[in-house]
Amino acid sequence: MTYPIIEEDGFKYIEAGTGETLVLLHGLMGELSNWELVIEQFKDRYRVIIPILPIYDLPILTLGVKALSRYLHRFLKYKNLNQVVLVGNSLGGHVGLVFTVAHQEFVKALVLTGSSGLYENAFGGSFPRRESYDYIKEKVEFTFYDPATATKELVDDVFKTVNDRSRVIRILTMAKSAIRHNMSKDLSKITIPVSLIWGKNDKVTPPEVAEEFHQLLPNSELNWVEKCGHAPMMEHPQVFNAYLEKFLDRILLK
């Protein structure tokens, strides 16, 4: 990642650009670098901020989607941010949904890509063969339509993370929290504009999940990314950015 991580008052984040604020929320196993091409595309016209969600820092007894939503609330208040556009991938989308239900006055619009919150087919309840590099490689490749997107660097990072006992316990705790926290009954409360940008070949949160989100979110649009898995901003960044730009132009420049 070419952008320095800012650390202040217990928060860690990346920030670039000026203008209307986009807050990018990473997934459970997501790296900040997942968003690098989004930052590059939008930093000339927008203020782009990526908070590091404290999955490995919060007390494990309170760790969950709601705890991350509360952290996001503290962060936005600390940065004196209001009427932001939240853009979330996977768990980050779920956090964005929980936060928006509780604090819709902070959010101008919401963008979800491969979001959990209804159903996800992730690693499951355990990593039965986490010591096997080939097994972890296969699991990371499962995330994408094109297995080549799972670079050695990415697989190495995930392998290192899941073989850290403290981290893997937190990952499993977080994953179970996300599965338990189903959003279907709350989505009708979100009346701000929502853009769903979804991989047509997503095996983690399959296309029917996007269609259900679209049905339950009253002010939503659904955009498909062909030949794409769970992380469109990584696998097809140009297509993802084009959809995002069109959405931002519609909601911010009207």
Describe the structure.
The protein has 254 residues and is an alpha/beta fold. The protein has one domain (6-253): Alpha/Beta hydrolase fold, catalytic domain (Rossmann fold, 3-Layer(aba) Sandwich), CATH 3.40.50.1820. It has helices spanning 36-42, 65-78, 91-102, 133-142, 152-162, 165-180, 207-216, 232-235, 237-252, and strands at 6-8, 11-16, 21-25, 47-51, 84-89, 107-113, 194-199, 220-225. Strand 5 (84-89), helix 3 (91-102) and strand 6 form a beta-alpha-beta unit. The longest helix has 16 residues, at 165-180. The chain is globular and about 50 Å long. The two termini are 33 Å apart. The model has no long low-confidence stretch (mean pLDDT 92).
Quick tags:
single chain, 254 residues, alpha/beta, Rossmann fold, eight-stranded mixed beta sheet, 39% helix, globular, AB_hydrolase_sf, AB_hydrolase_fold, hydrolase activity
Range of helix content: 25-40%
**Largest sheet properties:** 8 strands, mixed
CATH fold name:
Rossmann fold
| Overall form | globular
Overall tally of domains: 1
Radius of gyration: 17 Å
Order of strands across the main sheet: 1-2-4-3-5-6-7-8
For this structure, what is the CATH homologous superfamily? Alpha/Beta hydrolase fold, catalytic domain
List the secondary-structure elements in sequence, H or E.
Answer: EEEHEHEHEHHHEHEHH
Regarding CATH, which class? Alpha Beta
Beta-strand percentage range: 15-25%
Count of helical segments? 9
The number of E-state strands comes to 8
Terminal CA distance: 33 Å
Given helix and strand content, the structural type is alpha/beta
| Average pLDDT, all residues | 92
Low-confidence stretches: none
**Architecture (CATH level 2) name:** 3-Layer(aba) Sandwich
